[in-house]
Each structure stands twice: as structure tokens, then as C-alpha cells.
Amino acid sequence: MIRSFRYVPAGLLTVIFVVLLIVGPTIYAKIATSHARYDANIISLISVPKRDVAIIFGAGVLPNGQPTEYLRNRIVTGVTLYKEGRVRKILMSGDNRTSHYNEPAAMARYAQMLGVPRKDIVEDYAGYNTYATCYRASVIFGISSATVITQGYHLPRAVMTCNHLGITTIGVAAQRQGRDSALMYIAREFISTDKAVIELMVRPVPAVLGGPEPIF
What we know:
Radius of gyration: 19 Å
Shape: globular
CATH class: Alpha Beta
Largest sheet: 6 strands, parallel
Strand content: 5-15%
């Protein structure tokens, strides 16, 4: 077996190594989280295990201040889990870098419009990416168990990241109308998962942290 590798061109071995380096973390994330992922489009959400908090990741706000379709689907899924008694609180985590762009506020308004009481909605204004959201959920908001909600292509990375940052996590793929992802997002997820693995190894402190604000 070892001798056979002597006849494989070095360039081909390099290509194989690079490909494995790129796709390996994504394969690991999918396998490691397979038991903890649920699809709102396939199962009844009443069958999803209970967790303390639903963490909803931001996914863009339109110029009129309304959530994008992707984000609306995530919020609807989170609200359904709340109404079914699967979670007690909802953490809206997103980008609020400027006064003109506020994902968590838009998410909170939409959830309230769907019937969630304001007292059960928490806003995280510094959830700039998946790692920051999970890190802050654990360190700032004191969350120890959660259901993360996002689109299916992003779910393995989100569950993996929060689990490795100390939160017992399951994930639910957001309800959707039609396709929930595009090839561009799926391709980008390979690189994003590689980055996530590096972050989990290095454990950088997010740029914005602040003091503890425990939800419970």
C-alpha cells in the first residue's frame, strides 16, 4: 500500500490533501451533529426535544426594516417552537454595527407580530457571526441548553459551534417555502466550516463582549 503511493504524482497528492483539508471539517460537522438536527419541513415541531432557549441567527434586513425571507423563515420556526412549548425564551442574535442597521430589533418586532410576548424575547446586538453568537450565548447570556434555528446548509456548523462552546445544542432547519438554499451558500459553507474549526481550536474572544446578562 505504501509502495503504491510512490507512483502517485506529487501534484495529485497535493490536490487530494487540499480537498480533504477543505471538505473534512464539513463532513465532520455533518456526522457529529446528525443525531441533533431536525427539519421543520419534515417533522412536527412538537416532537423536537425541549430546550431552554431558541437561538435564531440573523440573516439580513431589507431597506424597509423588514427581515429577509430567509430570516422570516427562521423566526417563524422559532415562534412555532415557542408556541408548542419546546422553548421558553427566544434569543435574537444579529448585526447592529450601526444605528441604521439592526437585525435583532427587526427580528424581535416580527416575532412579537406573530404572538410572542416581549418578555420572552432577548436581543443580542453583537451576534456578528456564528462563532460570536454561540460564544456570547454561553458567556454573556448564560445559556446552557439551546435549540439553534437556521437554514439546513448552515445547521451542522451552528450546532457544532455552540456545542463546542459549552451549550447542549440541537438544531432545527427553518421552515421554508420552496428551496431553502442556493448553491452559492452551500459552497461557501465549506470555507465557513473550516474557519469555524480554527476558531474552536484557538477560542478568540469576540470583538464585542460586555458583562453577563443571564436570561434566567
